[in-house]
Design goal:
The chain is mostly helical. The protein is built from 14 helices and no strands. Helix 8 packs antiparallel against helix 14. The chain is globular, with a radius of gyration of 27 Å.
Length: 392
């Protein structure tokens, strides 16, 4: 008789125990199959985690919905809050308002850094110690950055929330131009067609605002400059990322520190210092509460943007941003009881459709040459131009 190996005896013993366990009245086997199928159906996968740590489809859907709602809430609230602060007739100091928001961002970076040391398992924030060399390397971007946020706010101040989407709609067009002029990269014909739709919507919107008698040429001019700065900001961000180890929060920290320093002489030169000193509500706690709240929302938009990209995708984030802009326009028209023509609404739809189509085309092109995966959550991949529009 051939001797039975130890491995063979062990396999037979394990099979015997398995049969005893699951063949008893057939109940255990049936229960396993039913529970396994149920878990796979809820998880949306063909297998489940043996330790029960697999996330269900319902949980993921609720989490994504919560993140998208949070992004919409923060972004729309920030725009309306900035419009409220900038539309203050007693304080005509948009540079000071923007400076204070940058100051709040720096303070929040310090607070979160300290909290991450005391609660490392609850808050994850990188160490942000100031380095003069890094600050100098980030300085060119900071110049573009303060131009972007300043002209964004000036555009919002003059055109209002309802026309803000159209007034600031040329970011994609300038992104294509700057990519070609600075980076020497060409753009596909389909993407250029999308830019043509955006341009058409922009000109139609300006025309309809003029017919309605609510056109602000100054606001449109600021919107065009802001759009160009958004495109430049995206390009310079990619260039200086190595200086901050590719961490978006360190970049935000240095950007806002440089911005605070650069804003001081601008506030003095443009005469806003006297406006602030003579402001009647300078000691009003409610005014400073709104100012701080505006800075908090300005900081939060960067976080929720990264959060939405992390739990969805860059394409979904851009689609969500487009839908948010549409909802924001509708809310503004209803809130301010404005009456808009059909062509005015058509201009908005053209801008939103062109932006969505451009995002879709670029996402298809990116799939053909997939980028490297980010190493951490602070290095989330964005579609072209998205880094520059995080503060919008």
């Amino acid at each position: 008789m051939r001797p039975v190996s130890v491995v063979t005896r062990r396999r037979k013993f394990e099979q015997y125990n398995t049969d005893r366990l699951f063949d008893r009245n057939g109940s255990a086997r049936t229960q396993l199959k039913r529970s396994g199928i149920l878990r796979m159906a809820l998880a949306g996968t063909e297998s489940t985690d043996q330790e029960g740590h697999g996330e269900t489809f319902l949980f993921r859907a609720v989490r994504i919905a919560a993140v998208v709602v949070l992004y919409w809430f923060v972004s729309i609230t920030m725009v309306f809050l900035n419009n409220y602060l900038l539309d203050n007739r007693e304080l005509d100091a948009p540079l000071f308002v923007t400076f204070f928001q940058c100051l709040v961002t720096v303070g929040l970076c310090w607070v979160l850094q300290l909290l991450s040391r005391f609660c490392p398992g609850f808050i994850d924030f990188p160490s942000v110690t100031f380095d003069l060399k890094t600050s100098r390397e980030v300085l060119p971007l900071s110049v573009v950055f303060i131009s972007m946020i300043t002209f964004n706010n000036l555009c919002l101040k003059h055109v209002g929330v309802a026309f803000y989407t159209v007034g600031r709609s040329l970011s994609t067009v300038f992104n294509v131009l700057c990519t070609y002029i600075i980076l020497k990269q060409t753009t596909s014909y389909r993407a250029l067609m999308c830019c043509g739709i955006i341009l058409g919507g922009f000109w139609l919107g300006v025309d309809q605002e003029g017919i309605a008698g609510s056109l602000s040429l100054t606001g449109v001019f600021f919107g065009v400059i802001a759009s160009a700065c958004v495109a430049l900001n995206a390009i310079y961000t990619k260039k200086v990322m190595p200086a901050v180890d590719g961490n978006i929060w360190r970049l935000s920290y240095y950007n806002n520190i440089n911005a605070c320093v650069l804003f001081v002489p601008l506030i003095i030169v443009f005469g806003e210092l006297s406006s602030v000193i003579n402001f009647s509500r300078l000691t009003d706690l409610s005014f400073w509460s709104m100012m701080i709240l505006g800075g908090v929302f300005g900081f939060a938009i960067g976080y929720v943007t990264g959060l939405q990209i992390k739990y969805t995708s860059p394409l979904t984030h851009n689609v969500s941003g487009t839908a948010k802009a549409c909802a924001q326009t509708v809310i503004a028209v209803v809130f301010y009881a404005s009456s808009k023509s059909l062509l005015w609404w058509t201009s908005n739809m053209m801008v939103l459709f062109g932006s969505s189509a451009y995002t879709w085309v670029k996402s298809l092109e990116m799939k053909k040459t997939p980028p490297k995966e980010p190493e951490d959550s602070a290095k989330e991949k964005l579609l072209p131009g998205e880094i520059g529009s995080m503060s919008v």
